[in-house]
């Protein structure tokens, strides 16, 4: 969990109120340093802040944003993934607190298994608050094991397994890092943009686990709160190959014009 946490940040709005708006993942590809999140989170890019130095300071990231454009509302956006190509000043500030995931840890062409080998980690709004009496910000990440559903069930959610990954959210079987015991899990508002990570169970047995980023969470559907919807990391890597001409393995699952 500590490994994933080092690549993951909360995205806040309201500089004085510390309101959690979403989650992001830091990735480095060649000499490009990226902040990846859901497009509907990055739509509000101008108002987003990142906590650094254990929340003692808030930093406003700068750079060039690349956000999926859609003629429909974000609620109907099957892709809903974007990134910020960070400028040099932002990278320096971010490295005081976080790390950047390397491109060989992106699970391109990953074959999903109907097993609980996957986890997501992000920052629920209800797990974060600013204490005016202490003049400090307190937050706890939420870490959850998750199982991809069978591809035969995707039509029910009007999603394609080539673009999206739908996984479970067993709210009554959630581990609370604050109280260090299992309890009922939180609302997932604030987790949009977090990563869905795969850990090989054999690596866990040998204590050499190195999580691979498979997707970015984009939705917690109102019609079924027992599921979360993610966008495959292949969508991001294909955009990076085409738009920024980066040298990444080609996806054999999707193509981007």
Secondary structure topology:
Layout: H1 2-7, E1 8-13, E2 19-29, E3 32-37, H2 39-42, E4 50-52, E5 57-59, E6 63-67, E7 82-86, H3 88-94, E8 101-102, E9 118-122, E10 128-131, E11 136-139, E12 142-146, E13 164-168, E14 174-176, E15 181-183, E16 195-198, H4 201-205, E17 212-219, E18 227-232, H5 233-243
Parallel strand pairs: 2-8
Antiparallel strand pairs: 1-2, 2-3, 3-7, 4-5, 6-7, 9-12, 9-16, 10-11, 13-18, 14-15, 16-17, 17-18
Organism: Aequorivita lipolytica
Protein name: Trypsin-like peptidase domain-containing protein
Question: Can you walk through the features of this model?
Answer:
With 257 residues, the chain is mainly beta. The chain has one domain: Thrombin, subunit H. 13% of the residues lie in helices and 34% in strands. Strands 1, 2, 3, 6, 7 and 8 form a 6-stranded mixed sheet that branches. The protein is globular and about 50 Å long.
Highlighted features:
5 helices, globular, 257 residues, 18 strands, 6-stranded antiparallel β-sheet, 6-stranded mixed β-sheet, Trypsin-like peptidase domain-containing protein, Thrombin, subunit H, mainly beta
How big is the Rg? Answer: 17 Å
Please state the overall shape, judged from the principal axes of the Cα atoms: globular
Residue ranges: pLDDT <50 for 5 or more in a row?
Answer: none
CATH class: Mainly Beta
The total count of helices amounts to: 5
Number of domains: 1
Order of helices and strands: HEEEHEEEEHEEEEEEEEEHEEH
Q: Helix coverage percent of residues?
A: 10-25%
**How many DSSP E strands?**
18
* Fraction of residues in β-strands: 25-35%
CATH architecture: Beta Barrel
**The biggest beta sheet, please?**
6 strands, mixed
Instruction: Give me the CATH fold name.
Output: Thrombin, subunit H
Overall residue-averaged pLDDT value: 90
